[in-house]
Amino acid sequence: MTVFTDGVPEVPAQGQAPAQAEEQVNVLVTEPPPGLAPAQLAAQVKGRIDIEDEVVEKVAGLAAIEVEGVADLGGDVARAVESVRERIGIGHRRGDQGVKARIDGREVSIEVTIVIEYGHVVMDVARQVKTNVAIQTNRMLGLRVVEVNVIVDDVRMPAAARPAEPAGDDDQRLTIG
Fold first, then answer.
1. What is the domain count for the chain?
2. Which of 110, 111, 121 is closest to 70 using CA atoms?
3. What's the family (predicted)?
4. Which of 20, 117, 141, 159 is geometrically suited to a Cys-Cys bond with 71, CB 3.0 to 4.6 A?
């Protein structure tokens, strides 16, 4: 167990083996020094954390797609490009398709383009997307979401029912002759 005192880790004296070497590698701070809250300890550590727009876009896209009634992300052009990429086997489906994010300091604005499944109420689904994107982005990334704009680009129609295969013997053949 490593304990920090005045921001400096205490190390066991020479010849003393730490009680649990595995935990020492995985755990940097188990208990802050008395009188020093974890937030104060973090404030003492210098450095910067940058979150790229693409990370916000992926989190927002995943949050949008998990809402019931969302069939897909992206506008017509983005979906067409993804369809071609999928058919020729280039890369994986992008989670940020149809999502744009603008980060300004600790605040973010997000635009999500979605396709609604037929049969769902468009306004209800759009509101749920707006709420879920804001909550998940704030929870996962710690950014303040100032706005979420939802663009409903299309409605996906239900897949046409395929005609059932005729039941019968597999040996039946059409003979012409």
1. 2
2. 121
3. Belongs to the asp23 family.
4. 117
